[in-house]
Model the fold of this input.
Amino acid sequence: VAELLANSVVAAVSLIFSVKLVKDSSFDGVNGMSMDGPQTLAMMEFLSSFFALGSARLSEAVSGLALRFPIQFDGESSTKGLAILVSALFRAIQGALPPWVLESVPGVFSNLYNSMGKNPQMFGEVLRLAMELRLPGDQGPRLAMGGVEPGELLSGHFFESIGEASKLEFRREGIALAEANTHASWKRFKHCVKGVCGGKKKDSDFGQKPAVTRWEYDRM
Done:
C-alpha cells in the first residue's frame, strides 16, 4: 500500500508536468488527459491527505520523484524530490490546473510542512529551489515531463519575470507564515503564492470548480 501511495504522488506530479503553460494556435497545452474536471479535485484532495500521513510516507514519495525526474542537483535527493514536488504545485497554480486549485493551497502546504517536521528553514529552502529548478537545456529527451521544454523552469514561466528581491521576500514571508502554522497564516500563504504565480487566471479555458462526485464501482 505504501508503494502504491508513493507511486500515485509521482503520477500526479507527472500529470501536472505534462501540461504546457504557454498555448498557441497549433497546441492547446494538453498532453493526454484533460485536467478540467472532478479528477483534478480528487487529485488535490489525495495530495493533501497523503501529506497528512507523515514524514515516512512523504520520504518514500520524494525519493520516487528524485528518481523519476533526474534533474541536475547538487544536494540530498530528499531535498531534490521536495523541490520537484513544490515546483509542480507552483506549476499547477500558474495554469497547468484549473484556477480553483488555488483553494487547495492552505491544506496541501500545511500538511506538507507538518510532514517535513515543521522545519521552517527547510521549507524556505525548498521554496527557493522550486523557483529555480530547470530542465537542462542540452537534454535531448524531455524526461517524460511532457509540457516542460528543455531549459524551462519546472515551476513555470512567471518566475522568469520576477526579480531576485521579490523571490527572496516571498521566501521570507513563506518561512514566517509556515512557522506560525495557523489556519490564518496558511490562508495568507495562499495569497502570497497567488501573487508570485501570476495572480488569478481570469482568462483561462477551464470550467468552474466541479461538485464533489460520488464514485461508484462495480465489484469485479
